[in-house]
Amino acid sequence: MLEAKLVVGDIVISIDSEFVENENENVEKQDCEIRAFYRMAKRIKKEYPKLPIIISGDALYTCEPIIMTCK
Asked: Residue 6 CB: number of other CB atoms within 10 A?
């Protein structure tokens, strides 16, 4: 599961969550963190359009499509 958190000092509030899973076993493509990220990023941009965001992720997120989505 991916989580988006709002951190203000010692206060941490979850603002969005996205599960990484398949609805059934007979799927053509597996769900993954990248697809989950795109779904969550779209919702966050819609709900919090002016919120400055810092992304903390591993090397999986250091690709051009993710960077372009963040911009």
From this structure: 13
Answer yes or no: are the C-beta atoms of 19 and 36 closer than 8 Å: yes
Cα–Cα distance, 62 to 28 (Å, whole number): 26
The SS3 of residue 37 is helix
Q: Which residues pair with 22 in a beta bridge?
A: none
Asked whether the predicted pLDDT for residue 29 surpasses 70, the reply is: no
Predicted local confidence at residue 4, as pLDDT: 94
For CA atoms 46, 39, 58, 71, the dihedral sign is negative
Q: Do residues 35 and 61 touch, judged by C-beta distance below 8 A?
A: no
> Measured over all CA atoms, what is the biggest interatomic distance in the chain, rounded to whole angstroms?
45
Q: What kind and span of H or E run contains 8?
A: strand 2-8
